[in-house]
Amino acid sequence: MSNNDWGYIANRAKELVREAAKLIKDSLKDERTIEYKSNPNDLVTEMDRKIEAFFNEEINKEFQEHLILGEEGTGQDLETLNGIVWIIDPIDGTTNFVHQQRHFAISVGIYEEAVGKIGIIYDVMADELFTAVKGEGAFLNNTKLPKLNEANLKEALIAINSGWIVEDTRMLSLVKECRGTRSYGSAAIEIASVAANRTDAYISLNLSPWDFAAGAIIIEELGGRITTVEGEQINLLKAGTICVAKPGLYEQLQELIFKKG
Ligand code: IPD
Ligand code: CA
Ligand code: CA
Fold first, then answer.
1. By C-alpha distance, which of 48, 132, 49, 129 is closest to 95?
2. Residue 55: phi, psi to the nearest 5?
3. Does one domain contain both 12 and 140?
4. I want to staple 210 with a disulfide (CB 3.0 to 4.6 A). Which of 50, 89, 121, 199 is the partner?
5. Least reliable range by pLDDT among 12-26, 36-50, 181-195
6. How many structural domains comprise the chain?
7. pTM summary value
8. Which chain residues have CB less than 5 Å from ligand 3, an ion?
9. Residues with CB under 6 A from ligand 1
């Protein structure tokens, strides 16, 4: 296999995601060890760490020259996206995992020289596997997803966490003008929901690269937009704001809400 046989890498990545999901499912009956990270709302379980360690071990075995950027820090401390980098969130939606045992996802984005090549988001309990290989379209399980149609604010369902509405008054006008809001508690699932045409946009004022690395590849493959809320290119090496939207709606969000404030 050559270093960048993307079909092969995508298949292996999907297999690893499914194996990781089985480990998570098998653990659901066990008692969980929960720790706080930065604050009591920032949870981590031993499964978050175990799953990331699983990816780390398997990737190192098979793709020795690939690098890993993972939420739980088992990969490398990267300052650039040179080479091939797997950006991994072993469990996105840990609070849901702990409280609800559902609505959490495994998120894997694979980049080459900072260009997104493969995006995988697996909603474990719903058994929904979202995948994209750059230039080959995006899929939900075995069904090809259609390109995203234009959407407009008045008819839009927008995923946003209520905390951001309280914190940033620019969000008030957005909430008033759109058709409705939703909050699923997993950034990866929220981005996948736009990809699957279930919502029209997703806004967060603080996400880390592993929350959106896979979603960005899937959304862009479908003609959707993903930038910071301020309209800048996403940065895969640091945390920031994120605006994901269907075409048309993206420009409205930028013009009507974010730029005018
Ligand atoms: C979190 C989830 C959540 C988002 C947070 C993320 P985690 O990821 O995606 O929906 O609002 O900003 O940190 O900690 O469950 O992997
Ligand atoms: Ca996350
Ligand atoms: Ca996580």
1. 48
2. -60, -45
3. yes
4. 89
5. 36-50
6. 2
7. 0.95
8. 71, 89, 91
9. 71, 89, 92-95, 161, 185-187, 204, 206-207, 211
Residues 128 and 234 in one domain: no
Domain that holds residue 109: 6-144
Residue type, 197: N
Residue pair 229/243 in contact by the 8 Å Cβ criterion: yes
Residue 1 domain flag: no
CATH of the domain at 55: 3.30.540.10
Q: DSSP characters for 8-42?
A: HHHHHHHHHHHHHHHHHHHHTTSPPPEEESSSTTS
- Ligand 1 geometric centre to CA of 57 (Å): 24
Mark whether 71 and 158 lie in a shared domain: no
Residue 52 CA to ligand 2 centre (angstroms): 12
Summarised one tens digit per residue, pLDDT across range 191-211 is 999 999 999 999 999 999 999
